[in-house]
Design a protein that fits this description.
Helix content: over 70%
Shape: globular
Radius of gyration: 22 Å
Number of helices: 11
Length: 250
């Protein structure tokens, strides 16, 4: 079963929890005009007409209920609301129909929803924290897989050592990018530098529900941030090369 099929299965029978939803509605102004579970989920659709602020408020209400209650309704509604984001993230990790990858994304998302603040910027923060958790776990898994026992008596040089070194260097660069600009900036630079995607295309893909003016503002913000991060990365590389030169001379 693919990620899309899994998430669709989660959300198909939520109507049986309407009493739970109705009991929670009075606690959240954002849910007041949304009389049913289906109406709340529809607010996240591209054709809903809801502003990003309105969707953010609804997401905040769902996150708030999830953090207060153990009822499955709230995690299921969040999975339904964020299905495009989750499917997009999963598609970047590896081949489809891999249960381990699927579960890794879903668990990271649920952990993110349980730890973020639900007052503002919920859409962005939930996406960024989920991505950070997923990629952190993937890097940890890769490092664990590469931590092979070394025996000087039996060791022979691997002809693919240069390729392995390049992969390690690439991982180090991704770590540096994330430390300088966060998961969003890391993804942006990978998309624009490795996949020839424009900043406008990146914004359109990662903020599919944003209106034109909001996308323009995001493009300007990300271009400034990207220039700043690349400048810092360049300075760090230059400094490391200088340090290596001094060490070689010594």
């Amino acid at each position: 079963m693919s990620m899309s099929e899994t998430l669709n299965a989660v959300t198909t029978k939520l109507s049986r929890f309407e009493p739970v939803y109705a009991e929670a509605r009075p606690r959240h102004r954002a849910l007041a005009p949304l009389e049913t579970i289906a109406a709340a989920l529809a607010a996240f659709g591209r054709t809903s007409g809801a502003t990003i602020e309105e969707r953010d408020a609804v997401a905040g209400a769902l996150v708030g209920e999830l953090q207060l209650s153990k009822h499955t309704l709230w995690s299921s509604m969040l999975y339904g609301a964020f299905t495009p984001m989750l499917v997009g993230l999963r598609s970047r990790l590896g081949p489809p129909r891999n249960d381990d990858l699927d579960q890794g994304v879903l668990l990271a998302f649920l952990e993110a929803a349980r730890c973020i603040r639900g007052e503002s910027f919920v859409l962005r923060n939930l996406r960024l924290v989920t991505e950070a958790k997923v990629y952190s776990q993937r890097r940890a898994e890769r490092r664990h897989e590469g931590a092979l026992e070394h025996d000087d008596d039996t060791f022979t040089r691997d002809p693919r050592a240069t390729e392995s070194y390049a992969k390690v260097a690439a991982d180090e660069i991704l770590d540096v990018l994330e430390s300088l600009g966060g998961p969003e900036m890391r993804d942006l630079i990978v998309a624009t530098c490795a996949h020839d995607e424009t900043v406008e295309e990146f914004v359109a893909r990662t903020y599919p529900c944003a209106r034109h003016a909001q996308r323009v503002a995001e493009v300007q913000r990300l271009r400034r941030a990207q220039a700043n991060v690349l400048s810092k990365l360049g300075a760090r590389v230059t400094r490391r090369e200088q340090e290596r030169g001094v060490a070689s001379a010594a």
